[in-house]
């Protein structure tokens, strides 16, 4: 069985859209191809490995131009691993409109809506599945590290999803091929069993690599949330450590304990969609701000439900508050 690397792209395509040329210059200065001596194709997205990812950034100044860029890429069999969209880009359509159109062209797109303020337009976001769960939010002004973390985490997630899909297709084809051979001859049966054992061993190795990718992505997403919520910095890590310790005390299996730790490490991932000004607000929250906070469990579930974890991580994240 041929094995493709978990991060097969030498350069990840990024689409940045903003009507401010200065903002576009910032994107291009942060998300750019890395020098060959520093770039490690297929590098792990854990720790400093994120900086090894290389990006090719396409910049557009209007929502219609962004949609056309995605359409042209799709026509050539290409796609963007992450799309950064400014919300307000007069005189043309908004970034929210562009997000809807882009997801029609490429349902696997990861979109980051970037805005300088939270307005009523966010209350009118289309609630249909396949839209909200592909959106993340970033408040201006942003730090260069935030852009790099978003691009790296989403590119790793994008590559992992493609790899899982490819593995599933490959496995389906392999099972069909082997079944046909079993019907032809008993001698082929013996060789087929040996071939299956080899394929299973290679698949387990690939799945182990995929777990490392997922683990690195999880940690990066957790760090991104904590950067935006300084009041609870370290909370997710401590919950993960407590979950692991409790699981060991209860005598749970290693696999189950690992699943609990993963879910605990990102149980507040839904807060990534909340404005930083709400997370760090020192005064009492308004009713609408409280509703946004209360929805972070559901948002976390929506973000994670399409990721094929070996454990019910999305369900754990959804149910981590007994009452909200």
Mind describing the biggest β-sheet? 5 strands, parallel
Terminal CA distance: 48 Å
What would CATH call the architecture of the largest domain?
A: 3-Layer(aba) Sandwich
Structural class: alpha/beta
CATH superfamily of the largest domain: Response regulator
CATH topology of the largest domain: Rossmann fold
DSSP helix fraction: 40-55%
* CATH domain class of the largest domain: Alpha Beta
Domain module count: 2
* Rg value: 21 Å
Q: What's the pLDDT, averaged over the residues?
A: 78
Structure description:
By secondary structure, the chain is an alpha/beta fold. It has 11 helices and 5 strands; from the N terminus they run E-H-E-H-E-H-E-E-H-H-H-H-H-H-H-H. Strand 1 (12-17), helix 1 (21-30) and strand 2 form a beta-alpha-beta unit. The chain has a 5-stranded parallel beta sheet with strand order 2-1-3-4-5, with helices on both faces. It has helices spanning 21-30, 63-75, 95-105, 144-184, 186-228, 235-249, 254-265, 276-279, 287-294, 296-304, 313-318; strands spanning 12-17, 55-60, 82-86, 111-115, 135-139. The protein has 2 domains: 12-151, 3-Layer(aba) Sandwich (Rossmann fold); 229-324, Hypothetical protein af1432 (Orthogonal Bundle), CATH 1.10.3210.10. Residues 1-8 and 38-50 have low confidence and may be disordered.
């Amino acid at each position: 069985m041929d094995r493709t690397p978990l991060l097969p792209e030498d350069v990840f395509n990024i689409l940045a859209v903003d009507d401010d040329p200065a903002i576009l210059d910032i994107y291009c200065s942060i998300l750019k191809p890395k020098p060959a001596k520093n770039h490690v194709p297929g590098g792990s997205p854990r720790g400093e490995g994120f900086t090894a990812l290389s990006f090719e950034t396409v910049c557009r100044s209007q929502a219609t131009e962004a949609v056309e860029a995605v359409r042209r890429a799709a026509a050539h069999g290409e796609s963007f691993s992450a799309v950064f969209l400014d919300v307000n880009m007069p005189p043309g359509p908004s970034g929210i409109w562009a997000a809807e159109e882009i997801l029609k062209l490429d349902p696997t797109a990861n979109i980051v809506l970037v805005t300088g303020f939270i307005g009523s337009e966010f209350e009118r976001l289309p609630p249909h599945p396949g839209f909200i769960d592909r959106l993340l939010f970033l408040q201006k002004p942003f730090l260069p590290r935030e852009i790099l973390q978003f691009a790296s985490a989403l590119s790793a997630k994008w590559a992992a999803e493609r790899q899982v899909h490819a593995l599933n297709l490959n496995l389906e084809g392999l099972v069909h091929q082997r079944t046909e051979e079993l019907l032809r001859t008993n001698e082929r049966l013996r060789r087929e069993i040996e071939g299956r054992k080899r394929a299973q061993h290679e698949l387990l190795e690939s799945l182990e690599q995929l777990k490392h990718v997922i683990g690195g992505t999880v940690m990066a997403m957790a760090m991104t949330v904590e950067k935006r919520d300084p009041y609870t910095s370290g909370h997710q890590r401590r919950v993960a450590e407590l979950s692991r310790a409790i699981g060991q005390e209860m005598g749970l299996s290693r696999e189950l304990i690992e699943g609990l730790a993963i879910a605990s490490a990102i149980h507040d991932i839904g807060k990534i969609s909340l404005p930083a000004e709400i997370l760090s607000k020192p005064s009492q929250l308004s009713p609408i701000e409280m509703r946004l906070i209360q929805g972070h469990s559901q948002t976390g579930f929506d973000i994670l439900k399409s990721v094929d974890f070996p454990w019910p991580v999305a369900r754990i994240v959804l149910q981590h508050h007994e009452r909200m």
